[in-house]
Amino acid sequence: LVIFAVGILGVATMQITSIKGNSKGRQISEAVTVGADQIETLLANDYGDWDDTDGDGTSQDNNHDGVDDNGGNFGLDDVTDATADGRIDTANGYVIFWNVAYNHKNNAIPSNLLGKENSGLKTVRFQIEKPGQVQRFSIDMVRVDL
């Protein structure tokens, strides 16, 4: 009976771990789906509509080596109303922040080659979170203006 009880405790522990893993997987799938749906909607916006409103991702890499000259991350990880370039609250409780960086990570196309100011590549990072959940998910998108 003791051996049987020890075996059942082991199975119960595995079951609890499995339930937690399945719950985490569901959260990840739901967050990514919500984020991807919103990104698809936002992709309808023109290139010029994606602005670095706080200026923390613009002209941070003057030597085009893919490293933020100010020692930061081009502002791509900002996730508050005060620091992000945009925010959307979804109907199912998710909050999506986005940040824009011009010519980020060795993808720089100097604007003088394209003949337009702030043209080239824009990296848009979407941070997806659900209040009350610990983990945040990110999706990066690169937009090009030729």
What is this structure, in a nutshell?
The chain is an alpha+beta fold and 146 residues long.
Describe this structure as you would to a colleague.
- This protein has a four-stranded antiparallel sheet with strand order 1-2-3-4.
- The model has no long low-confidence stretch (mean pLDDT 78).
- Helix content is 31%, strand content 21%.
- The chain is of the alpha+beta class and 146 residues long.
Written as H for each helix and E for each strand, in order along the chain, the element string is HEEHEE
Proportion of residues in extended strands: 15-25%
Distance between the termini: 74 Å
Strand order of the largest sheet: 1-2-3-4
Radius of gyration over all CA atoms, rounded? 21 Å
Instruction: Indicate the multimeric state.
Output: single chain
Low-confidence stretches: none
Shape: elongated
Given the structure, what is the number of helices? 2
Which structural class best describes the helix and strand composition?
alpha+beta
Tell me, rounded to a whole number, the average pLDDT. Answer: 78
Helix proportion of residues, in percent?
25-40%
Strand element count: 4
Largest sheet descriptor: 4 strands, antiparallel
